[in-house]
Amino acid sequence: MRAFLSRFLQVCIYPDSFFERVREEKGWSRPLLHLLALTLWLSLGSAAAWGLGVCGDTPLNSALGAQMDVYPFWRDILLPRYGLWSYPAAAGLVVLEMLVITAIWTPAVFVVFRYLGGAREPGGLLRAFQGFAYGLTPVAFGGFLPYLALVVGVYATLLQFCRGPAITVRNRTAVPYLFSALFMAFAISQYWQHEVL
Q1: What pLDDT, in 10s, does the model give residues 152-194?
Q2: Quick one: which of 68, 73, 71 has its CA closest to 51?
Q3: Contact status, residue 130 vs residue 31, Cβ threshold 8 Å
Q4: Where are the domains of the chain?
Q5: Which of 181, 166, 157 lies closest to 112, judged by CA?
């Protein structure tokens, strides 16, 4: 358990060396387990924070689009109808959306990083998943707390869409930085138009 938790710190403090080491993993089980633990922690923390009055539909208080999407639904529909039962339902919806988003973005990250300058080696989709899933790790450190959520959310986005896949898929071109800039511009425009991702 200690080794499992130390991986969370290693990703955040030493991302480059962590992503180099993670390339040695051959299976999907470790990054998938990491992602599941992360989504469970973030969903439970989000539901608890909402119960304490934290408004979860802004990037200042929520690190991910999944939280910002579920919060208004929880506040307007689930909470008035189901009361205390709305909290586990909201947590479950956050987990579900995070897994769906990962399933959609992992192939996109793979295509961009692999075919625009990445290394041609077997297991490319696993490498993209490792970069994307482990890159989400900073949100574990306050992704549902006011102001801290914004900081860890931006850091996670940079790891997910830039450093992580750039190292795991071996793309040392300018593509990772352009992809990150485009994604950040898209996310900011969606937020300002009140259409959270």
Answers
A1: 998 998 899 888 988 998 877 777 777 777 776 776 666 665 5
A2: 71
A3: yes
A4: 2-39+99-192
A5: 166
